[in-house]
Write the structure tokens for this entry.
Amino acid sequence: MEELSDFATRYAAAWSNDDPVAFASFYAENGSFRINDGEPSVGREAIAATAGSFMAAFPDMLIRVVEVRETDEHVEFHWHWTGTNSGPGGTGNAVDLTGYEQWTLGADGLILETRGYMDDAEYQRQLYADPAESAE
């Protein structure tokens, strides 16, 4: 479990460090990354592009490990995400969300598949909220 916790800590740091290639290196060459019911990003290049789009949109993005759990079939990486959508075309709004990813790991310790889960309705609400409304 210590190895998994260390892996999760390094993974969260890679999410937070504005280096999509370093983030994608946690995945097998043909690994896949999927958020909710979205189209999966398959392969390190596609995973780096997906991560890079979040990193560009949220330059101050910070992912923190909440918990790492082992199940019979997966590892669950529970996270807390904060950041401000201040990248190109951003809304300027902050997000503060929790969610988790289900990892399927390969024998080499790299991620073969990630299924990420977050409350998309809450994400959209925070992303597009009128700042004047929250000031009241």
About this structure: The longest strand covers residues 94-105. The chain has one domain: 2-128. The CA atoms of residues 5 and 102 lie 14 Å apart.
